[in-house]
From TrEMBL:
Signal peptide location: none
The protein, known as: Transcriptional regulator
The keyword Transcription belongs to this UniProt entry's keyword annotation: yes
Pfam families xref list: HTH_20 (PF12840)
Residue intervals of the HTH arsR-type domain: 19-114
InterPro entries hit by this protein: ArsR-like_HTH, HTH_ArsR_DNA-bd_dom, HTH_MetalResp_TranReg, WH-like_DNA-bd_sf, WH_DNA-bd_sf
GO molecular function: DNA binding; DNA-binding transcription factor activity
Amino acid sequence: MIYDNELIGKSMGTIKHLNFDIETRAIGEICKALGHPTRIQIMTLLWKRDNRTCGEIVDLIPLAQSTISKHLLELKKASLVKIKHEGKKTIYSIEVDNLKVLKKYFGNYLSTIEIPEKQKSTVLGTKHKLKGRKSHLKQYNYQFPDRRIKMAL
């Protein structure tokens, strides 16, 4: 890959960019915005039923209203959601055109990838068994249902 001469000699802390085409930059921004599970969850909720307020989303995702607002702003910056004001309410809906760009890109990209037959059976037949699964959850302060019941008694 050939890089722009202006990148040579730049420190690692400096933001580097190439002159990518508009579609590539748009896809990068969309993927960046979708890089957080909460934003994916918000997009899923909006896809299932468009035109939701922040309050409706907060009712469905157990996070603070300010956190949801921050994620909605990131989705707006990436042009994944549209905002419509109705009186005091702000209504959020999906920006379908940008999702079409993403779908087209991933459709084209994924159609070029082939999984060898040997790996297909491994990938499709794999059951996810993780050792130490509960200890992994403990580090994130996950409360197991049976413990909550015992603690309540």
